[in-house]
């Protein structure tokens, strides 16, 4: 059974902390994640204020290359944006916590685009 949530439920501070916990898995040694975590509460409450006031805007992507073993051009959203991606692509199936939607085959850019699409639908319903 799917449980549907409204904008206030999805953007609650508790939901943001749960999305953070999901996001940071396997990334604890990344410098940008560590920097964000130094001011975690301030950062998440700031994101919460933007969501509640509907002033949040998705930021630009950071562009860089990796060589593993071949050269790849990567575009990475900010941590704030990626936390929101985790938040919007989650569902609460058992009433106890957030569980990621099983869409493992999505490429990263599709993941971000779907999160933005869901966010737009949520804000349209509230207006």
Give the CA-based shape: globular
End-to-end separation in angstroms reads 27 Å
Spatial strand sequence of the major β-sheet:
1-2
- Helical fraction equals 40-55%
Proportion of residues in extended strands: 5-15%
Main β-sheet, in a few words?
A: 2 strands, antiparallel
Report the mean per-residue pLDDT as an integer.
78
Number of strands: 4
Domains counted in the coordinates: how many? 1
Radius of gyration based on Cα positions? 15 Å
Name the helix and strand elements from N-terminus to C-terminus, one letter apiece. HHHHEEHEEH
Structural class: alpha+beta
Counting H and I runs of at least 4 residues, what is the number of helices? Answer: 6
Low-confidence stretches: 92-98, 100-107
Provide structural commentary:
The structure is a single chain. The chain is α+β, with helices and mostly antiparallel strands and 127 residues long. The protein has one domain (7-126). It is 52% helix and 13% strand. The protein is built from six helices and four strands; from the N terminus they run ααααββαββα. It has a two-stranded antiparallel ribbon with strand order 1-2. A two-stranded antiparallel ribbon has the order 3-4. α2 packs across α5 and α5 crosses α6. 17% of the residues are buried. Residues 92-98 and 100-107 have low confidence and may be disordered.
